[in-house]
Amino acid sequence: MSIKEKQSVELLLKEETVKENEIVLFNDEVNTFDHVINTLIYACDHMPEQAEQCALLVHYKGKCTVKTGSYDDLEPRCSKLLQAGLSAEIV
């Protein structure tokens, strides 16, 4: 095994261990589709179509990952969702 191949293998192993956090949005019986969609656009920078798809997934599946990234990026976004009355958590 050459030095270049060994370095490539080590780099790939390091990349696989990087774990991104996720904001998971949960279904509730209180909020309207419009409220959920508008909040996702505001808090998570979703496009309207993406926010609508997430709202539908939450409604039919019970939950949906709405944003992935570093904890520092997700924490204020999740706080905005919670302040808007949505049920969400960072996992």
UniProtKB/TrEMBL annotation:
The lineage of its organism: Bacteria, Pseudomonadati, Bacteroidota, Flavobacteriia, Flavobacteriales. Keywords: Hydrolase, Protease. GO terms for molecular function: peptidase activity. This is ATP-dependent Clp protease adaptor ClpS. InterPro entries: ClpS_core, Ribosomal_bL12_C/ClpS-like. Signal peptide: none annotated. It holds the Pfam family ClpS. Residues 20-84 form the Adaptor protein ClpS core domain. GO terms for biological process: proteolysis.
